[in-house]
Amino acid sequence: MSGEAGPETGGPRSEGPRITDPEKTVGLEIRGLEVRYGPVRALRGVHLSVPGGAVAAVLGANGAGKTTLLRAVSGTLRFHRGAITSGTVAFGGSRLDGVPAAAVVRRGVVQVPEGRRVFARMTVAENLRAGALGVPGRLAATARERVLDLFPVLAERAHQRAGLLSGGEQQMLAIGRALMAGPSLLLLDEPTLGLAPLMAARIADTVRQINAQGTSVLLVEQNAAMALALAERAYVLEVGEVALSGPAADLAASDEVRRRYLGVGATHSDRPVGTDSGPTPEEHERPARHERTRLARWTA
Amino acid sequence: MAVFLELLVNGISVGAVYALIALGFVVIFKATEVVNFTHASLLLAGGYVIARLHPLIGFWAALAAGIAAAALVGALVEFLILRRAHVGSRGVLAIVTIGVDILLTTELTRRIGTEVLALGDPWGDRVLRLGPVTVAETRVVALAVAAALIVAFLLAFKFTGWGVAMRATAEDAETAALMGVRLGRVSLSAWAVAGALAAVAAMFLCVFPTPGLDRGTAAAAMKAFPAAILGGLDSTTGALAGGLIVGVTETLMSGYQSELAFLGRGIGDAAPFLVMIVILLLRPSGLFGTKEPARV
Predict the structure, then answer these.
(1) What is the pLDDT of residues B122-165, one digit of tens each?
(2) Three-class DSSP category at B140
(3) Of A247, B87, B143, B228, which is least packed with CB atoms within 10 Å of its CB?
């Protein structure tokens, strides 16, 4: 049940000012990635790509290796005594594996960690300033305008301690803080975890906006409905391996994904996605569109 | 009353110097969560360079050289030893710093021998008379310099990019790295700054009324340790408060030793530690420390 299929849909799906230079929004390429925490193998043979300007989603249950995948990209495995033992991670043609976290940020890849992890003892304004520490000062002012435009509430709360914000506001701050570095690729780790449905929908809209402005997004989510509605391409991780991959519409229409991640009974063909003998575009268009509509309604 | 005021002014002045040393402890702890027992030898190294160089290049140039040397020693300890010591526990790293301190102190005390080295400061033994109170000029300068440095550091922590990086790292190193903060640089700069502060403190600890730098000077740094602990090991404000409490307590207890004879001799030296124990019993995180049980 694995493999590549379907045309790349690529590119933002809504209009908006593009902040990031499109020439710099080159893709993320992960090839044959294996990650170990000591003797424990957390990822094996993972292939994944996020084309420039696209949104890709990674789905999977707890412990499937989703967060480990992001750590491998952002260079933070060493904080958890993990290491890439084989394979490559490249962004914009240059290797990221073995590169320290701060250098990954300078290359335009920034992660919003799971659980927000805002600097609780610092003010909102100081958190945003911390986000811009890895980039030249002149870029910080532009980035700050973009962030406050996306999240006006952060301007209102500028001098409040971040630890006193609500969960949704903290998530906005965490995303805003990451955007301060002007990333070409934003890594989002469970951005809607623990948020009320309305706030989760708001975050989803924001991700769309960020992407429309030219930033690629790699989204790790347990909320499969939201992730598949946002992404052009999706990957399902199971026990450290990519079990399924393909256009998000195809995965949303897949009975296996519907049953296991969307909580819906099997109603369509059992044909697997991600195989050469997959459905024709006409065949998968109908259920995919139906699924998209349903998902869009769910996240609205 | 005049005696009390004199003791109080002297205590505040000595306390300000202890606060400089404690600030070094705190800066390193905030940046790396390592309790740095190497501080005493950084202080001794700075003082030693000043003492040896001032006859050759003059006091101010020697002071600058001493500050630079202590900063360099601090940076080298971080770069050559702590950064490469891949141990999981911060407690183990603290013990590593004890080992480094013993090595450095042994070498420096061997070089100092039995001498008492003058630092060639320009204030000499002059005193200031403010009404009934007589204070050594060195004490007044120490208070002014320490206060200025501490205020400068508090402002730098609050407003500069370095300060924001330091505080972000102290709160969550992994997330700080995800924001592009270079943790190695933060750690290196913390050790260098702590060394520089220790050298300034060494200078003030070794001028009048102290005869000069000797092999016992390093012990003075250990008095700043209770200052840092009782203030809260991760609080710059706590370092200031702790330094002042230790300085005033020590000076008052020593000044009134004859009235406190029933407590035995040397109560002035023991008092800071007694105060630390009492404060920690009442406030386990120190006066201004973050209330996190995981902290040392």
Answers:
(1) 898 898 888 888 889 998 999 999 889 989 988 998 999 999 99
(2) helix
(3) B87
CB-CB under 8 Å, A134 with B180: yes
Nearest to A70 by CA among A28, A103, A41: A28
Asked if A113 has any chain B CB less than 8 Å from its own CB, the reply is yes
Tokens of B86: 């891949």
Does B209 sit behind a cis peptide bond, omega within 30 degrees of 0 on the bond before it?
Answer: yes
Q: Which domain holds residue A208?
A: 25-108+183-247
Percent helix, percent strand, percent coil in chain B, to nearest 5 = 75, 5, 25
Contact list in B for residue A179 (CB cut-off 8 A) is: none
Chain A residues with CB under 8 Å of B162 CB are none
Backbone angles phi, psi at A119, to 5 degrees: -80, 95
Q: Return d(Cα B22, Cα B26) in angstroms, integer.
A: 6
Sign of the dihedral defined by the CA atoms of residues B241, B246, B251, B252, in that order: positive
In a domain, A293, yes or no: no
Query: CA dist B170 to A68, A122, B60, B177, Å?
Result: 24, 11, 34, 11
The pairing of beta strand B133-136 with beta strand A94-95: unpaired
**Strand arrangement of the beta sheet that strand A40-50 belongs to:** A40-50, A28-37, A82-91, A94-95
User: Is there a contact between B178 and A129 if contact means CB atoms under 8 Å apart?
Assistant: no
CA A5 to chain centre: 20
Please indicate, yes or no, if residue A204 is contained in any of the structural domains: yes
Contact (Cβ atoms closer than 8 angstroms) between residue A85 and residue A40: no
For residue B229, the SS3 value is helix
Instruction: Encode burial over A255-279: b for 16+ CB neighbours within 10 A, e otherwise.
Output: bbbbebbbeeeeebeeebbbeeebb
User: β-strands A185-189, A216-221: how paired?
Assistant: parallel
Chain-chain contact of B171 with A119 (C-beta, under 8 angstroms) = yes
What residues of chain B lie within 8 A of the CB of A122, using their CB? Answer: 164, 167-168, 171
Report pLDDT digits (tens) over A112-170.
998 889 999 999 999 999 999 877 777 888 899 999 999 999 999 999 999 999 999 99
| A74 touches A150 (CB < 8 A) | no
pLDDT in tens, A16-41: 444 444 444 458 999 999 999 999 99
Strand-pairing partners, residue B134, are B129
Secondary element (H or E) of residue A187:
strand A185-189
Give the ipTM.
0.81
Tokens 């004490």, residue?
B139
Q: Would you say residue A165 lies in a domain?
A: no
B33 φψ region: left (φ > 0), alpha (ψ -120 to 50), beta (else): left
Q: Is residue A159 part of a domain?
A: no
Question: Considering its fold, how many domains does chain A have in total?
Answer: 1
Q: By C-alpha distance, which of B258, B221, B226 is closest to B241?
A: B226
